[in-house]
Design a protein that fits this description.
The chain is an all-alpha fold and 214 residues long. The protein has one domain: MetI-like (MetI-like fold), CATH 1.10.3720. Helices cover 82% and strands 0% of the residues. The protein has 10 helices and no strands. It is elongated, with a radius of gyration of 20 Å. The N and C termini lie far apart (50 Å). The model has no long low-confidence stretch (mean pLDDT 86).
Length: 214
């Protein structure tokens, strides 16, 4: 336990980096996944094909491979991006495919009659999505999105593999310096448990409030 007490600042910094990676990656994935979901359900065949292709590609590529490609491919293409931003881009792109499917499932739960009624009063496809479909769809997919958030939090541990000093990266450094893997990784595991349990509890609160507000 000496390694833990002597490096609480480093562990706290790694934990903060993990939280930042998780929140930013999920926020970007939520935006990108919504755009892809709209493309998948829109009446334009080309956009539907592009949305489907995106989901099929990113759901079938290992996240670690995607991170390595982004970290090394962007500099080769002349794009200078920090490791932190590269990890956010990789995790967000990967998670967006799952967010898209969660949103599409939520959209399918919206009654067809409501969509037809909205179109009958002259609303466009975009207006129907923004004012009728998406608000109701998001209510029904709080739990799936919470599960994706938890998956994103756990996936950020791969950031250590490309040099980001997140919680896992700091833990690995402590293991190398102090040769105390059990306490180091137990501490990191506890931190991840706290993050995921907190996300699950918050998701449950939001879901209950939305249910009451219906």
């Amino acid at each position: 336990m000496d390694a833990i007490w002597a490096n609480l600042d480093a562990i706290g910094g790694g934990l903060l980096t993990t939280v930042e990676l998780t929140v930013l990656s999920f926020a970007c994935a939520l935006v990108l996944g919504t755009v892809v979901a709209v493309a998948r359900i829109c009446p334009v065949p080309l956009l539907r094909a592009l949305g489907t292709g995106y989901v099929e590609i990113f759901r079938n590529v290992p996240l670690l491979m995607l991170l390595v490609l982004i970290v090394f491919a962007l500099p080769d293409a002349g794009v200078s991006v920090s490791l932190f931003a590269s990890v956010v881009a990789g995790v967000a792109s990967y998670a967006a495919a799952y967010v898209c499917e969660a949103i599409r499932s939520g959209v399918n739960n919206v009654g067809v009659g409501q969509v037809e009624a909205a179109r009958a009063v002259g609303m466009t496809f975009t207006q129907v999505l923004v004012h009728v479909v998406l608000p109701q769809a998001f209510r029904s997919m709080v739990q799936p999105l919470t599960n994706i958030f938890i998956a994103v939090a756990l996936s950020t541990s791969l950031a250590a593999s490309v040099g980001v000093m997140d919680l896992t990266g700091v833990t690995r450094m402590l293991n190398v310096n102090y040769a105390q893997p059990v306490p180091a990784f137990l501490c990191a595991g506890l931190c991840y448990v706290l993050i995921t349990l907190g996300a699950g509890l918050l998701g449950g609160v939001v879901e209950r409030r939305l249910r009451v507000g219906r």
